[in-house]
Design brief:
It is built from 11 helices and 14 strands. The chain has 308 residues and is an alpha/beta fold. The chain has a 7-stranded mixed beta sheet, covered by helices on one side. Bound molecules: zinc ion (2 copies). One zinc ion (ZN) binds next to helix 5.
Length: 308
């Protein structure tokens, strides 16, 4: 694609990054951080006006819960609804919330792991569901159309004092996007399900202090795994998913823009492990920003993971 972004945040090659990943010992951002910088980042993180949790992450179902606490009140919304309504409600209840409190749902794309619970939720609740107009003809027939708020990517809107904007990603769905959420000077981004890093993604996430970023697969595991060739090609294609090394280089770019909290998400159960994803991204960050404190974690496939 013409707007594919080539990284040049460092002279290091991907091979060098891989070699580093193999030899790095405790190359965590925390380990390399000065105490003052780490304390500063921790202090800033506690001031986030957002609580953000993944309720599930990966091919078995994606959903991210945002609760924004602002002087004008609390604004709660979801990005994606890939869990069943019951599982979503149960997870929200455990966090002191409920689907009845959700002001809106924003969809990244129409694949079932992102909209699996949407039809049932839309039948029982009246919040608007923002979804790309291009995806509408391909949605399940039992999804009540009256609940849908079709949008063209990119779009931007406000929920009270919270600004939510979308940006295009590169995926084999009829439309796909990531999101940027802003309030009170804090910016949180989400970007999963993309086989390439586009300029729209770099621009959309630029300056986000906290980002949920896909690290879907380890290249060697995919190549030597049991997936048939056509499936491997689909995943590794420019409209598939993001591999760990590319996620690492994109993470380094994001850190250069001010990101200091990253949650790796949508890991493949078959072709990745949390340790491999963390090691690859840590290695990329250690090459480019060895002294920058960055909080790095992995979203659980099942259950709730607290991000902010
Ligand atoms: Zn997808
Ligand atoms: Zn997905």
């Amino acid at each position: 694609m013409t707007d594919s972004l080539i990284f040049d945040t460092t002279n290091a090659t991907a091979e060098a990054a891989e070699a580093e990943a193999g030899t790095a010992t405790a190359a965590t951002a925390e380990a390399g951080a000065g105490a003052a910088e780490a304390a500063e980042a921790a202090e800033a993180a506690t001031n986030f006006p957002f609580s953000v949790y993944t309720l599930g992450s990966g091919s078995t179902g994606n959903c991210v819960y945002f609760a924004c606490r602002l002087p004008s009140g609390k604004v709660e919304f979801l990005i994606d609804a890939g869990l069943s309504m019951r599982a979503t409600e149960k997870a929200l209840n455990a966090l002191g919330s409920s689907l009845a409190d959700i002001a809106a749902i924003f969809i990244t794309h129409e694949h079932v792991d992102h909209i699996g619970g949407l039809a049932m939720i839309a039948k029982h609740y009246a919040m608007p569901i923002y979804i790309a107009a291009d995806s509408l003809p391909f949605l399940p027939s039992d999804l009540p159309r009256a609940r849908l708020a079709p949008v063209d990517i990119p779009f931007s809107l406000s929920l009270g004092e919270v600004q939510i904007s979308s940006f295009a990603t590169s995926h084999d769905s009829f439309s796909s996007c990531g999101y940027r959420v802003e309030a009170a000077g804090y910016r949180v981004g989400l970007c999963t399900d993309t086989g390439d890093v586009l300029e729209s993604m770099a621009a959309g996430l630029y300056g986000c202090q906290a980002v949920i970023l896909e690290a879907n697969y380890d290249k060697a595991m995919l190549e030597t795994g049991r997936y048939p060739p056509f499936w491997r090609e689909r995943i590794a294609g420019k409209r598939g998913h993001l591999d760990n090394d590319t996620a690492g280089r994109f993470a380094a770019y994001l850190v250069s823009s001010g990101t200091y909290r990253i949650l790796l998400a949508h890991l493949s159960a078959e072709n990745n492990t949390p340790d491999k994803a963390l090691a690859a991204v840590r290695a990329a960050l250690a090459l480019t920003f060895p002294d920058r404190p960055v909080s790095l974690a992995v979203a659980a496939r099942y259950g709730v993971t607290k991000f902010l």
